[in-house]
Amino acid sequence: MTTATIPAALTTGTWTIDNSHSEIGFSVRHAGISKVRGRFSDVEGTLVIADSVAESTLEAVVQTASVDTRDENRDAHLKGEDFFNSTEFPTMTFTGKDLQGTDGEFTLHGDLTIRGTTHPVDFAVEFQGTAVDPFGLTRAGFEATTQISRKEFGLTWNAALEAGGVLVGDKVTIILDLSLVKSEA
């Protein structure tokens, strides 16, 4: 990662996504008139902050079968072959490649892989700060968003609407609200 100034509060070391205090969410246009929102409940990730930004790394893995849109039938469809095909492609991954920005607002460039297809994506990232929780753990908070074309990742299923248009929009907004915990030692 390069060309950014990491906030001083983010000290060198390994930071791990706290799954129970983070959310990987998404929204997509439905029937051209509303949005369906969902989230993934099973995510793992590690941010390693090195002495230089260029040597720092970011890796995240999301279990596709953990999708939750508050509708069991829709979730089953999303896990099936028409969408994520969770049996054949159990994970989505993100690898950070470059970081640009300062003062807590960044653009994170990286590679997103869904259904075995990888494309570059850019997340707009806001650093929310650090805090030590009541258990002595040092936490860092981030919010990040991006928009992807689901068709670019092989998520092409759709149904035509009687009045024209399609049931599921192509553009998917991904919204991350992350709490990372710094590893001790």
Structure notes:
- With 185 residues, the protein is mostly beta strands.
- The chain has a single domain (13-182), classed as Lipocalin, CATH 2.40.128.110.
- The protein is 4% helix and 55% strand.
- It has one helix spanning 72-79, and strands at 13-17, 23-30, 34-40, 43-49, 57-63, 67-68, 91-102, 105-114, 117-132, 138-149, 168-182.
- An 8-stranded antiparallel beta barrel has the order 1-4-5-7-8-9-10-11.
- The chain is elongated and about 55 Å long.
- The model has no long low-confidence stretch (mean pLDDT 92).
Strand order of the largest sheet: 1-4-5-7-8-9-10-11
Structure annotation, total helices:
1
What general outline do the C-alpha atoms trace?
A: elongated
Annotation, overall tally of beta strands: 11
Distance between the termini: 23 Å
Q: CATH class, anyone?
A: Mainly Beta
Quaternary arrangement of the chains shown? Answer: single chain
Biggest pleated sheet: 8 strands, antiparallel, barrel
Average of per-residue pLDDT values: 92
- CATH homologous superfamily name? Lipid/polyisoprenoid-binding, YceI-like
Q: Remind me, CATH topology?
A: Lipocalin
Fraction of helical residues: under 10%
Strand content: over 45%
Helix/strand/pairing class, anyone? mainly beta
**CATH second-level architecture:** Beta Barrel
- H-E string: EEEEEEHEEEEE
Radius of gyration: 18 Å
- Number of self-contained structural domains: 1
Pfam families: YceI
InterPro entries: Lipid/polyisoprenoid-bd_YceI, TTHA0802/YceI-like_sf
Protein name: Polyisoprenoid-binding protein YceI
Organism: Zhihengliuella halotolerans
